[in-house]
């Protein structure tokens, strides 16, 4: 029988911290999936730390305002990164280790046509990308817009259709809006930038 040893606080801080070359590699992969919204890439995982924390940590610095929606990871994240803590409604980066609610999503900063850079970027943990058995807990999105040749599909496990309906509404006034980065437990990542048009694929009747 194997047991999982709990990390000490110091070990947690060290594992969250990213070397510059690791951060640069993760950043390139993030840019890749933001530029091609139906694409799935992968980052290296770190034992004992959720991949969504690892990815966001590599992109955070003292000039980035962050909200970490997890009490267990909030303090270690800010100690490791030096990022500025703020509440969810004002943060540039939001890190969610559990599914965001529609109310949380609609409370986020979207910027405006003159200041689109003020729009939030959400790093959201999901349970997979079309891995759910028999499609349970999976939402298939139809994405169009920059980076896609016509329409492309992305299946996301662990976030309800209502969440993506709310995201589509939040991003209706591009270039204002919210960028969504999805991170699975195995380190796979995908992204839905605010420039993407989103609809939900409806199951065929009788299927």
From TrEMBL:
<dbReference type="InterPro" id="IPR038058">
    <property type="entry name" value="PhnH-like_sp"/>
</dbReference>
<keyword id="KW-0456">Lyase</keyword>
<dbReference type="Pfam" id="PF05845">
    <property type="entry name" value="PhnH"/>
</dbReference>
<dbReference type="GO" id="GO:0016829">
    <property type="term" value="F:lyase activity"/>
</dbReference>
<protein>
    <submittedName>
        <fullName>Phosphonate C-P lyase system protein PhnH</fullName>
    </submittedName>
</protein>
<dbReference type="InterPro" id="IPR008772">
    <property type="entry name" value="Phosphonate_metab_PhnH"/>
</dbReference>
């Amino acid at each position: 029988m194997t047991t999982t040893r709990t990390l000490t606080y110091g070990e947690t801080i060290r594992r969250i911290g990213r070397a510059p070359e690791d951060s640069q590699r993760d950043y390139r992969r993030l840019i890749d999936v933001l530029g091609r919204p139906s694409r799935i890439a992968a980052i290296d995982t770190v034992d004992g730390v959720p991949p969504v924390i690892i990815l966001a940590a590599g992109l955070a610095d003292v000039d980035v305002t962050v909200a970490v929606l997890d009490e267990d990871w909030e303090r270690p994240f800010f100690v490791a990164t030096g990022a500025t803590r703020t509440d969810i409604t004002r943060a540039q980066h939001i890190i969610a280790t559990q599914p965001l609610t529609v109310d949380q999503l609609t409370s986020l900063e979207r910027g405006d046509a003159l200041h689109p850079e003020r729009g939030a970027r959400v790093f959201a943990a999901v349970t997979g990308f079309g891995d759910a058995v028999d499609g349970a807990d999976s939402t298939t999105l139809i994405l169009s817009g920059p980076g896609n040749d016509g329409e492309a599909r992305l299946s996301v496990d662990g976030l309800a259709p209502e969440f993506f309906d709310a995201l589509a509404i939040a991003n209706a006034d591009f270039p204002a809006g919210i960028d969504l980065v999805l991170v699975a437990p195995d380190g796979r990542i995908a992204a839905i930038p605010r420039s993407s048009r989103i609809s939900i694929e409806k199951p065929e009747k009788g299927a």
